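Dear Dr. H.,

I hope your travels went smoothly. While you were away I took the liberty of generating a structure for the chain from your last submission, since the lab meeting agenda had it listed for discussion. I wanted you to have the full record in hand beforehand rather than looking at slides cold. The sequence, exactly as received, is reproduced here:
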Amino acid sequence: MGSHTYHTRRQWHNLSVWSISSLIMLLLGLVIGARSGDWRLLIFLGVVAFLGLVFTFLQDRSVNAIYTIEADQLVMVKRKDRLVLKRQDMLDASLIDRSAARDYLRQKLRQKMEAGMTEEQAKQRERDFVRFCTVDVGLRSLTFGLGRRIVDTMPNAKHDLILLRLSKGEDLLLSPVYNQDLMERLGKLLRR
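The corresponding predicted structure, in token form, is as follows:
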């Protein structure tokens, strides 16, 4: 079996939600400004909309990660972070959507915290869970969860991610462009 390389997908969920919200805010500011003759509210809303667009763009523009399946291992690289998993390090892989991934992690962390895990350890576990995923699953939203329900119902939010369970009890979330192909290759690797 040769080497197969997969790149990650990018999704602009937060930017889409903020763009629509900004448009509504600006139209509201325009109506209020036209009726009252005071344009300061429109200028303020314009600045807020612009800053929000910049922040959501930067948040959604994650650095790409690369997944490579080599002879008997999976190599994942994102920026300077590199992880090599041997076949025996992986238990299984399954397709999962973004809301199910978020719920899975929260439930698992809740159980670990009840068993004595500290808050700092839980935050580190959350960072480790998504460190090779470039799709925002709603753990780091700038809208503090207000836009999460809207994003979860967007058609392109239903793309399946890959949940990779490891033998050490850890999990990783992957976001390849061609998720079915990577799942098939991982399945072949795990069946050897």
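Two observations you may find useful: The helical segments are 13-36, 40-60, 98-114, 119-129, 148-152, 179-191. The CA atoms of residues 99 and 149 lie 9 Å apart.

With kind regards,
E. W.
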